[in-house]
C-alpha cells in the first residue's frame, strides 16, 4: 500500500495551485477506499470519508477536511484515462502480491430473470452471472431454463473463471455444500446466505443470535455494525453480527472450510415496524 501511496504523490495535478484546497492524493485515496467499501456515487463517497476520517488520516493529511462530493467528481473528471489506467494497474499489482491477502476482490454470483426477452408461451431467460465489484464488469455468464437450475449452473460457472485468492458471495439458492467445497477446492473463500432452504442450519444460526447475551458479546468484541437509510417514506435499519465461535455448530464439518457465521437484522419503520433476519456463513 505504501508503494501505491508514494506513486500517487507524483501524479501531475492540472488544477490552478492557488485554488487547490485538497491534495490530489487525498482525493484519490478517498475515492479508492470508498469504492472498496461499495460506495456507488460521489455523495456516498463523501459520506464514507466523513464517517471514517480518522481512519483515512492514517494514510492522508486531510489538511482542509473532507472534500465535497462535487469536488471529488470534478477532480476525478480532470484526470486523463492514462492516469486512471495506471492507477488500476498499480492496484492490480498490489492485489497480486502478498498484500492482496488483506485486499481480496469480491466476486458476486447472482441469477437474474430477463423478463423483457420473453417470447410467446416460453418462459423468460434466466442468467447466472459472476460479477467483480472492484473491476466493475462481468467475469462470466451462463443461461439456465429456470431459477432452480442455478444449483447446477453455479459450479459450471465457477469452473470457467479464476477465483483463486478471492471472496465469492452467493445468495441462498446457491448455498449448497458441494458449491462451498468447489470454491474451497479452487482456493477461494466464500460468504453464503442462509435462509430456510438450509433448514436446521438456518434455525441453529437464528436461535444462536436471538440470545441477547450473545448479541451483547458480539457488539463488545467489535464484530458488529449497523446502518440507517431513508428511502420511499420509510426508515431502514440494518444490524450485522458476526462470530467465529462455532465449535458448537453441529453442521460445521459438513461445510468445507467454514470459519464463521453471521446474522443481518433488518427493520423497516413505516406506519408499523417489521423485522426480518438473515444468516450467513463464511470461510476464510
Compute the average pLDDT. 83
**Order of SSEs:** HHHHHHEEEHEHEHHEEEE
Q: What is the 3D form?
A: globular
The main sheet orders its strands as 3-2-1-4-5-9-8-7-6
Quaternary state of the chains: single chain
Biggest sheet architecture: 9 strands, mixed
Number of contiguous helices: 10
- Low confidence ranges: none
Structural class: alpha+beta
Computed Rg: 22 Å
Question: What's the end-to-end separation, in Å?
Answer: 22 Å
Helix content: 25-40%
Strand segment tally: 9
Beta-strand residue fraction: 25-35%
Please characterize this protein's 3D structure.
- It is a single chain.
- With 284 residues, the protein is of the alpha+beta class.
- It contains 10 helices and 9 strands.
- The protein has a 9-stranded mixed beta sheet.
- A hairpin with a 2-residue loop joins β6 and β7.
- α2 crosses α3 (42-51), α3 packs across α5 (69-78) and α7 (150-158) runs parallel beside α8.
- The longest helix has 16 residues, at 81-96.
- It is globular, with a radius of gyration of 22 Å.
- The two termini are 22 Å apart.
Descriptive keywords:
single chain; 284 residues; alpha+beta; 9-stranded mixed β-sheet; 10 helices; 9 strands; globular
A few lines on this structure:
By secondary structure, this protein is an alpha+beta fold.
Protein topology:
Layout: H1 2-8, H2 24-36, H3 42-51, H4 53-56, H5 69-78, H6 81-96, E1 106-114, E2 125-132, E3 137-144, H7 150-158, E4 167-170, H8 177-185, E5 189-194, H9 199-209, H10 212-221, E6 224-231, E7 234-243, E8 258-269, E9 273-283
Parallel strand pairs: 1-4, 4-5
Antiparallel strand pairs: 1-2, 2-3, 5-9, 6-7, 7-8, 8-9
Helix pairs in contact: 2-3, 3-5, 7-8
